[in-house]
Amino acid sequence: MAEIQIKNVAKRFGSYQALHDINLTIADQEFMVLLGASGCGKSTLLRIIAGLETQTEGEVWIGGRRIDHLPPRERGIAMVFQNYAVFPHLTVFENIGFGLRMQKLPNDEVKRRVERTAELMHIEQLLGRYSGELSGGQRQRVAVARALAMEPDVILMDEPLSNLDALLRLEMRAELKGVLAESNTTAIYVTHDQVEAMSLADRISVMHEGRIVQAATPVEVYRNPAERFVAGFIGNPPMNFLPAASADGGKWQVAGEIYDGPAAANGVEFAIRPEDIAPADTGLPAKVRLVEPLGAHLLVTCDVDGTMFRAILESDLQVKPGDMLKLAPQTDRIRWFDSSTSLAVA
Amino acid sequence: MTTVDTNPGTDTRKAGRFVYISAVVLLCAWVIVPLYFLLINTLSSPDTVNSFPKAFVPEFDLGSLSFFASFAGMLTALKNSVLVAGMTMIMSIVVGAPAGYALSRFDFRGKELFRLLILLTRAFPLPLLALPLAVMFIRTGLDDTVFGLALVHTTLAIPFAVLITFSLFSGIPLELEEAAWTLGCTRLTAFTKVVLPLILPGITASAIFAFVISWNEVFAAAVLTIENRTLTAFLLQNLDTSPLHLKFAGGFILVVPALIFIFAVRKYLFAMWGIANR
Ligand SMILES: Nc1ncnc2c1ncn2[C@@H]1O[C@H](COP(=O)(O)OP(=O)(O)O)[C@@H](O)[C@H]1O
Ligand SMILES: [Mg+2]
User: Long-range contacts of range B188-191, CB-CB < 8 Å, 24 or more positions apart?
Assistant: First the structure.
């Protein structure tokens, strides 16, 4: 059992506050992705869990044991680094077996586990090589195999795929997901790539400026962003926002149209995903600015009430810049965000 | 019919090869010829050394060498030199490498100043220090001892040891060490199992450097020792007034240990130059 609890963790580098009061619980065997833009504190949080960085405040618990005062080797974790950190003076075999040798396991046990994990990562034919004789993708596999061979309670990965080229990244992503699903370890995976996050995660923690703004399943994060930031960060293109003016009794006027919204709120913003819009007889009046065919769909950039607004429409739609469209949002997909707190309101 | 090679590229390639081989021969000659003359004259009788023309084949007259071997104090001086240089080597690495590691891995107040100060120690002229040092050594009983001199040589070698190891450690990604920590290493075992093997060639080179600094150092050696002279100080004192054949033999004795030493660690030197680097 390796549930991870992060309690009120904060981190300051001098006067710079990299993490603010982080609270997060990651269930046993869950695959948690920390997602956020570069510099938002993902690596710092991961390194605090690993014990490579010391938190300024707060506690970290793994499997019901408080571990934040322990050195990395006593935390029951294994880590995969962004630059792989494959030891250049050791063969692939000795790299994968490094942690096992440190545990003073007998030779045949080391051999058995190295060979098994190497097979799992499809690198059994590379066991005699040195890191200098490997490609980036192969090094990546060695790094993952080395972590898996430890049979850790928790595996931590810091942007492990970001140095691979696009095709290899796709392949490794699928493989990682398969391998980790079978390994019974709890995983925390750091990335700035939302597609990667969506495809791998059981749950995503979206981070922003040292805070976790939402921790939920990929679908939930996508469908029901907890904050305006998440709505504007997730999705490609992200959600559209339009200002809304209060009409009576939970009705809001958006670009001249009236929609049902939250009953009591100060000011709110209307939000809708580009794919939850369709042309109709009535709807938001939109002036087409740009039409980009994406194969299966058209990405249409319009001007609605003076605000930029994107819609993903059927590719057989005849539309060109300068046209006027009526765009009807799918009403159950409309979301509302409080203009002062940026939080979602129902 | 024989095929005639009309490829113009062959000629240029031949010429290139010729230049390459000549360059190699020239460079080798540059190093080997003086050493060879030194060897010949060392292994010649005093008469041959002073006569002309010179022979190109040594006579294998061991007179000069055996003179040195039996010359009072000679072997002691050689032993002293090796001892002092060896101690300097060990002490400068033992003190310098951790300092280099700390400089590259930890942030602390005054780090830049510290690095500057290390360099500044080299700006101090030894002659200025020699007298006060001698007085202090006499007071503490360190004068005329191998250990005392090694201390001085260590002081001379440490700045290099610190700066060389600093750059060595800086060249090793911290990520490697961190990986080792997460794989069950303590700071110390991560150092011995990961960092040390990677910097060993560099450490060795820096140790050789310390050894050579001490081996060549003559001023402090001459001032601070009387009975326990090192080879350089001893030869400096005695060769001045010696006949030519003994000067050759003395030079030979000075050069050979350094050659042997460097030959023994050539692998690491090559590694440092990136030739045998994996
Ligand atoms: N050792 C450090 N010293 C000072 N600032 C740091 C240090 N490590 C990280 N930071 C700062 O903390 C913030 C978060 O960094 P990091 O966790 O690496 O971001 P991410 O991994 O999300 O890109 C960044 O602004 C970074 O500059
Ligand atoms: Mg990072």
Answer: B189/A102, B191/B101
